[in-house]
Amino acid sequence: MHKQKVVQRQNYLEWLKIWSEKPLIKVVAGVRRCGKSTLFKLYIDWLLETGINPQQIISINLEELEYENLLNYRALYDYIKARLYKGGYTYVFIDEVQNCKDYEKAVDSLFVKENVDVYITGSNAYMLSGELATVLSGRYVQISMLPLSFAEYVEFKDVDEKDLLPAFQTYLRFGAFPAVAMLNEQEDLIYSYLDGIYNSILVKDVSTRLGITDVSVLSSITKFLFSNVGSPVSVKKISDTINSSGRSISVNTVDKYLQALCDSYLFYKTERYDIRGRQHLKTHGKYYAVDSGLRELLLASSTPDLGHVLENTVYLELLRRGAKVNIGKMAEKEIDFVAKDANGTTYYQVSASVLDKNTLRRELDSLEKIPDHHPKILLTLDEIPQTANYDGIRQLHIVDWLLGKNETNK
Questions:
Q1: Which of 249, 262, 388, 399 could be 395's S-S partner, Cβ–Cβ 3.0 to 4.6 Å?
Q2: How far is CA 99 from CA 68, 208, 220, 240, in A?
Q3: pLDDT tens-digit profile of 248-287?
Q4: What is the dihedral of CA 376, 357, 308, 312, to 10 degrees?
Q5: What domains appear along the chain, each with residue ranges and CATH number?
């Protein structure tokens, strides 16, 4: 049988290797179908290659019917305890652990046993909030997994240099879930697959957990967020919009739904940051979607907003690179992103094109007003000289930046 090519998630794989056998629970969190299970398979393959005995590995996916009897924490614990390896480490992998009620009791009991290395995945941030965070406080390390970066997509699809721009357009249109990359631009199959992911998130990760019976209101809020990616969002505005259509929803309920959509990793909320005052502003944050393909699926009838889709793509890439990201505010000016990482702070403006001199002036003006000397970058799709520089503000092609080219900005 033909063996299907697998997307290598090198950064995440290296993270697991670094934490291997360290006395902490390893948590891989992220939206459904972003590649968490495949990551575990890649890591298990690596363990076997290093000489680990297959009997030292216990792997359970709680989404699979064959493990339905382990959805009780006691059953899960007993099953794993009975299979622990004598005379060396046992590597325990539990996929979609949130499906097991009170699973933290089983995980914590396994963790305190000698020579047990525990790895878990989950598709909902709720699994590590509240009581669980208290139970496992200081006992776990977490990495948030996202769908494919453009660099991973290019590597997997083996894209030729001359085809990078068409590949990027496809990447934006269909999104970055690993399985989508394998479907070779078969639109009907891709959108059917994405529809399945979307409905699973809305039903399993949001509606069921919150006890929502009218999913249509939740769906309306989701579409509102997708159509307002990159724009300031007010909870009251969402409530007023839905109420004006004849349905009733309170501001508090909207707020609860927004939190649940972020807990399911369908959206990421970013706060505004006053650069001059050096403080976070709690009002009118922005929401970014985990995948542009899901956005295209739900808003297919509307005109695509390339600028905001590019902004969304840059935001996710900054998260992948380990940055803490905020929206910058300078008096009446806005800076798309203030990104802070181990190397310091970098400011970003994102625009589809700045060939129009008024657009260029507007984008540069925001960056020029910043009263410090941290790197400032303007990302566009314009063909530009590699040395494009405006008094220290570097203009880069977004595709080059996504692929890690021209990274001498520090």
A1: 388
A2: 9, 12, 26, 35
A3: 899 999 999 999 999 999 999 998 777 655 655 556 789 9
A4: -20
A5: 10-145 (3.40.50.300), 186-304 (1.10.10.10), 306-410 (3.40.1350)
